[in-house]
Amino acid sequence: MARELEVAVAAATAAGEILRSNFGREQVVRYKGEVDVVTEVDEQAERKIGGMLREAFPEYGMLAEEGGAREGGGEHRWIVDPLDGTSNFAHGLPVFCVSIALERAGEVVLGVVHDPMREEIFVAERGGGATLDGRPIRVSETDELIRALLVTGLPYDRDAMPAALDLLSRFAVLTQGLRGLGSAALDVCYVAAGRVDGYYERGVRPWDVAAGALILEEAGGTVTNFRGEKLDLQGLEIVASNTALHPSIVDVTGADPAEDLLGLPAPSFPRRVGPPPAPDPTAPNSTAPKHPS
């Protein structure tokens, strides 16, 4: 894997320079869904990564967020997210990264996550441990949920929002605190480095977490689906934490939404149908523009 690792790190670094040099500039944004966005910089970074990987390993397949799947002639496949945290990037929030994983016969064997703003590179090879800028990293030793700082994300799918808010409300009272970084790959890597204690999210894609999941495992952590079963990269959900804390997290993520935890009722969230009502300009303290009669 030495050659693959070298090229993956070089590709992630080159793409990261594209992101960093374009950060803070006005972005051309288009929508892939109601709120999910992609920028021209995503596509530029993906072209850079794809070109470098194909030049070095033309026989390897590739699955990338913006470009879809390209079949190869063997058992190897790259899984690429050229800009994980696009919404942050587009809004000028400096929390985003490049994620590159290599899959062999269906198993991820190499992962690289590069944060160009902090100039950090997380790396792992299966069986070889995990590093941050060349130094070994380990997950935290927190073993109580009430002492744990978790990170999570909210779904782009608005139909999935009630369930996500249900989990958010439960963890808000069961943990030390919750954070939302807006980059799934960095979320998992921060667990791997012991910066936070756990991460859960529903709605993730293979390119979001493939590299980070291996980095976490090689840092001594555990990664599963919401029910504590083996992670399926196509399964859209992930729980990542240190091994001691993991059962406590999946007790919550795997619970029936109607189940009462610690005497807390499962909240009910109304669904909005149609656009919100227009503001009333005659209402007290209204910020709606007032037109002369």
From TrEMBL:
Domain of life: Bacteria
Enzyme Commission number: 3.1.3.25
Entry protein name: Inositol-1-monophosphatase
General function of this protein: Catalyzes the dephosphorylation of histidinol-phosphate to histidinol, the direct precursor of histidine.
Gene3D superfamilies: 3.40.190.80, Fructose-1,6-Bisphosphatase, subunit A, domain 1
Pathway: Amino-acid biosynthesis; L-histidine biosynthesis; L-histidine from 5-phospho-alpha-D-ribose 1-diphosphate: step 8/9
Molecular function in Gene Ontology: histidinol-phosphatase activity; inositol monophosphate 1-phosphatase activity; metal ion binding
Region (Disordered): 261-293
